[in-house]
Amino acid sequence: MVKIIKVGMADLQSSVHPCIITTLGLGSCVGVTLYDPVRKVAGLAHIMLPSSQQARNNSNIAKFADTAIVKLVNDMVALGADKSRLVAKIAGGAQMFSFADGTSEMLRIGARNVSAAKEVLSSLRIPIVSEDTGGSYGRTIEIHSEDGRLKIKTIGHGTKEI
Amino acid sequence: MVRNINDLNSVHIDVLKEIGNIGAGNAATALAKLLNRKIDMDVPRVKILDFKDVSETLGGAELPVVGIMLKVTGDLTGNILFILKQQAAAILVNILMGKVSDGADDAKVPEFSEIEISALKEIGNILAGSYLSSLSSLTNLNIVPSVPDLAFDMAGAILSVPAIEFGKVGDTVLYIETEFTEGDKRVVGDFFLIPDVDTYSVLMNALGVSF
To answer: A29 catalytic, yes or no?
Structure first.
């Protein structure tokens, strides 16, 4: 029986094989998954904001791209993953609403979350092997520890694997 | 001065509840006029939720919901988001467009046509607009709503919008749940008033509450 682990908003989880780690209804938040294909360790972070440096309250480290990804890497290394083998897949960062009279900073948060996640991954030298980001729709994602595939479900925009 | 939502005390909560009550009351009146039906409304419930519980509200993160959002400018800046479950949205659209539901359709997952989407936008516009206008007259603040935008998607994805904004100051989301009743049909809608973090104090001070 494969263990299914749910990740909430501003939350992160990791596990060894066999498991499926999932987060439901990603909107403007970004889901970052990491995977060590040799030790089959998988991890997922549901990130809400780009940086803990700009926040007034940064006690929840799973909330921010900079702190969440570092924590996820450490957790996975503790489970036996090798940091140099980790590969990343990212999804989410949609813009759920838009307005004709120019889009506010608040609504562009999805794109900012994606670019922040990419910067953090690049500074940690973790390659991004695939992504499904942007758009204007929500995504449910699940990473399978068996082979690191990331399944993406949407309403009205189909299902895919990346 | 920027504060955490967790710092709201019982007086602040009562004030927000009262705003919600008056705002939603106005919205119910507007809805009754629009639909030309008698609309009853329950006392709104102010809810403060932890992020971990947010996706499970409204019946699950993957449940399809309709979100109608308006941008707010003026003395108070931010956004107002009105969320309806898909079934509730279908009931409102059917009443507005004079479609008679035979009951069999009620259990089906409805799809919305172009014209139904504009009808829903208009409903959101009127509800949120009347909510804001009562807030404006209560506070004496100049509050200008934009035209609405509508999204039909997973509850979690729509809720990420207010959650992120509230996430800048804390780990909780505040919203007002309102229940409208028309005959034997119950329509539950949730209002998320999302002031930009810097204008929370403007709102409280305008209501004569120190924050």
So the answer is: yes
> Residue B60 and residue A24: Cβ atoms within 8 Å?
yes
> Nearest C-alpha of chain A: how many angstroms from B181?
28
Q: Are B51 and A9 in contact (CB under 8 A)?
A: yes
Q: Which residues of A touch B195 (CB under 8 A)?
A: none
Residues in Cβ contact with B115 at an 8 Å cutoff, skipping those fewer than 6 apart: B97
Answer yes or no: do A97 and B151 touch at CB < 8 A.
yes
CA distances in angstroms from B90 to A36, B33, B184, listed in the order given? 46, 18, 15
Residue A43 β-bridge partners: A14, A34
From CA A134, how far away is CA A94, in angstroms rounded? 4
Domain boundaries in chain A? 3-161
Q: In order of start, what are the domains of chain B with their CATH numbers?
A: 5-206 (3.40.1550.10)
By DSSP bridging, strand A128-133 and strand A87-92 are: parallel
pLDDT in tens, chain A (162 residues): 789 999 988 999 999 999 999 999 999 999 999 999 999 999 999 999 999 887 666 778 999 999 999 999 999 999 999 999 999 999 999 999 887 555 566 668 899 999 999 999 999 999 999 999 999 999 999 999 999 999 999 988 889 999
- At B20, give phi and psi (nearest 5°): -60, -45
Nearest chain A alpha carbon to B150:
A97
Contact of B151 with chain A, judged by CB distance below 8 Å, is answered with: yes
Query: Quick one: three-class SS letters along B90-155?
Result: HHHHHHHCCCCCCCCHHHCCCCCCHHHHHHHHHHHHHHHHHHHHHHHHHHCCCEEECCCEEEEEEH
From A29, A73, A81, A86, the catalytic residue: A29
Kindly indicate whether the domain formed by A3-161 is annotated with CATH number 1.10.3720.10: no
